[in-house]
Design brief:
Layout lengths: L40 H9 L5 E7 L4 E11 L4 E2 L6 E2 L4 H14 L21 E5 L4 E4 L7 H6 L20 H10 L14 H15 L3 H13 L10 H4 L5 E4 L6 E4 L22 E2 L1 H12 L3 E2 L2 E2 L3 H7 L15 E3 L4 E3 L13 E5 L5 E5 L4 E6 L12 H22 L1
Antiparallel strand pairs: 1-2, 1-16, 2-3, 4-9, 5-6, 7-8, 10-11, 12-13, 13-14, 14-15, 15-16
Length: about 425
């Protein structure tokens, strides 16, 4: 089947509540206060010095205030522009937990269940087949033992294809609806629920479910239900002209692995402000450290920030506990999958500073956010570095987590008692 790009416009409301909804919370920066020491930047300086990264924004927040907001290195090596704490970053797959939380808001409203077959809400999935045998000469299909469920999408256990055939590197050229139809007519790769396999199409399908069950375009739903009420003024699928100027340059290793050279976000069409681009539910957002602080303060507070509740505490507990049993999550040993969040159930080398049960998500260009519910801290690393072998095992993440826990862990945990 041939799909053409449909044009639709998404009307986003003005951020009327941003100044008032979270007035009891602060994003004051230690970096702006001469009485406070710099505690995070020294841990990342060596990675700037050896050209692993050009620069970074580093943030630690407790449930009610930002404890540190620091910068290191450059936003652009060519111009020697220093990194600023309001720099914007493509946060890529850090979008996934936000999409999952949006879906779970609709679950709380009774509009669907995570145990529902996806075909109940998206009829294009009815009759989806499974690959039984595949050789260069033929493909044999059979009926799967059961259809995929919403929970399968949330946990990367659906068996959906990893991407549309012939889709190219840019993933945002179709509408969300058109892309999801493509996923539905493609055969499953394995029996639903039998295996964990990272799946961007599964999360994009969650975005389409949000559209169908809310009656709003996905991006508009996220803007009105999350970003505006939380005061996340710089979180967007389509940066404005002003925001484009603040996006940190992306870099990749230079020739023969020496130095860094500028690169693009290859998964997105070049005109980032073009609202005809699909809002990728699996990885399309741009954001800042201060915006993310709002989101993770809400999570640390059990789904509530200021006077507004976004999710029930029990819903967040469900999302941040192991939902895949003994299935191997391939990113790292000791890691499991919740609903949209990765879960650390046993201490690992790169997460030794975190408590078991910590959860979070990373992005393709090395961005990271991890929440420790025991120490009551969220730790955020914002960089734009393509070609990292495995950002979930990066030495940078480990160094930042150790520095953050050393500086704030005991104090934050005690304050939460």
């Amino acid at each position: 089947m041939t799909m053409t790009r449909s044009h639709f416009s998404t009307s986003l409301c003005a951020a009327l509540l941003a100044a008032t909804c979270c007035s009891s919370f602060t994003t004051s920066s230690w970096a702006r206060d001469d009485r406070k020491p710099t505690v995070l930047a020294p841990a990342l300086q060596k990675f700037v010095d050896d050209n692993t990264i050009s620069g970074a924004v580093l943030m630690v927040t407790s449930p009610d205030k930002v404890l540190a907001l620091e910068t290191v290195g450059s936003a652009n090596l060519e111009s020697k522009a220093p990194m600023k704490d309001d720099a914007m970053f493509w946060i890529a797959s850090m979008t996934k937990p936000m999409t999952a939380m949006g879906l779970m808001m609709l679950v709380e409203e009774g509009k669907l269940s995570i145990d529902d077959p996806v075909e109940k809400h998206l009829p294009e999935f009815k009759g989806q087949m499974l690959i039984e045998e595949k050789t260069p000469e033929r493909v044999v299909l059979k009926k799967p033992q059961r259809p995929i469920t919403v929970k399968d999408l949330l946990t990367h256990t659906s068996g959906l294809i990893s991407d549309l055939p012939g889709g190219g590197s840019a993933l945002d050229m179709l509408t969300l609806q058109g892309a999801v139809v493509g996923y539905a007519v493609s055969p499953l790769q394995f029996e639903p629920g039998s295996k964990w396999q990272y799946c961007n199409p599964g999360i994009n399908t969650l975005g389409r479910l949000i559209e169908v069950k809310s009656g709003q375009p996905f991006a508009q739903f996220m803007q009105e239900r999350f970003f505006e009420p939380l005061g996340m003024k710089d979180t967007t699928f389509w940066p404005t002209e002003e925001q484009l100027k603040r996006i940190a340059t992306s870099y990749k290793p230079g020739p023969e692995g020496k130095g860094l050279e500028a690169t693009t976000v290859k998964y997105l069409s070049p005109n980032l402000k073009d609202r005809q681009r699909m809002p990728l539910a699996a990885g399309g957002l741009f954001s800042t450290a201060s915006d993310l602080a709002r989101m993770y303060q809400m999570v640390l507070n059990g789904g509530k920030l200021g006077k507004k509740r976004y999710l029930k505490e029990d819903t967040l507990k469900l999302m941040t506990t192991n939902q895949t049993g003994d299935l191997k999550v391939s990113f790292s040993d000791g890691m499991h999958m919740g609903l949209g969040f990765h879960i650390v159930n046993t201490p690992m080398g790169v997460t030794e500073a975190l408590s078991p049960g910590s959860f979070g998500h990373g992005g393709a260009y090395g961005t990271q956010a991890w929440i420790d519910p025991t120490k009551k801290l969220a730790i955020v690393l914002l960089i734009q570095r393509a070609g990292l072998p495995n950002s979930d095992k990066s030495d940078m993440r480990a160094a930042l987590q150790r520095a953050a826990v050393d500086a704030f862990g005991k104090e934050a945990a005690a304050a939460a008692q």
